[in-house]
Amino acid sequence: MNPIVIIGTGMAGYGLLREFRKRDPDTPVTLITADDGRVYSKPNLSNAFAQNRAPAQLASDTAARAAGKFRASVLTHTRVEAIDTAGKRLATDAGEIVYGRLVLALGADPIASGLDGPLVQAINDLDDYTRFRAALDGKRRVTILGGGLIGCEFANDLVGNALVAETGAKAIEVDVVHRGAWPLERLIPEAVGQALAEALEQRGARWHFGRTASRIEADTGGARVLLDDGEELETDLVLSAIGLRPRVELASAAGIAVGRGIVVDRELRTSAPEVWAIGDCAEVEGHVLPFVQPLLIQARALAARLAGEEVRVTYPAMPVVVKTGAYPLAVLPPPAGTAGAWRVETGDGGLRALFEDAAGNLAGFALSGKETARRAELAARVPPLLA
Question: b/e per residue, 361-370, with b = 16+ CB within 10 A?
């Protein structure tokens, strides 16, 4: 029997394997990864520094232990170069692999900032984070490009790190360069964004709104980041956190339909027979959602489907908890294109911003501080994203 082959060992790949084994203990499964296949939770990368956790402490298992635990084969340091959907074959740099059913759990790539050089880094996996932490050792100035989710979480992590409290070391100086007028402007209204910016500023972050970085120049002991208005920022490292783009190139080259992501239906099937996609690379009925809850929903649904059950993906209203301890946030942005307006109220220990559609119905929200405890209550009032 040709195995189920999963390309990718991130949260999507391992999450699918874990859910599938709950239903089917025997069908052969092979995972392929270009890295060492360690098991870790990607969201933990953006708060590990504040918790004084070394990169090695973030991995819960090696590929070998995961393979044994879930009775699977994990091929590490193996890169898939092409997919032959007609012949059900993969061309890899380690030879040809035949599959029975194929799952693309390819993830997403950081959007390029346009700045090059050894001091410019992006964090998209544990290897990236390991390099960043090594480069940060002994440094005290970091410039973050982008004030979205990733940028805000890393800014919070760097300015509030435990090393300062434990050792009395000098705090990390953080500059955040953001094209928008306030952080997370695609997810939250201005009043909440400004409150987040002020909370991080009180911790030591410096904001540069409405700006982009035009170039980086080497300097003695560091570098200068030049902004589009001529301002110069002295820095030791640049962290590019502009956003993520689904990995679609492998699928597209194989003739599989792609849009913003790899196009799949509610069963997570691609346009090719016996090929599915899951996680950050998947576009489910027009939705590309690089968050944990939709990934877990997909993993459970596809595991059931591969085990022979008739299951389709359904998405409830899914709030996102932003890991900014300086200003706790829970956000549920309205679906793109929803007509309506934000109504911002001061609640019990935080702001409560409600997005109401043209008919006055709740379509989204942004909660801060103690108001975040109301996220489940309010989410129950918001229509499901995919019923």
Answer: ebbbbbbbbe
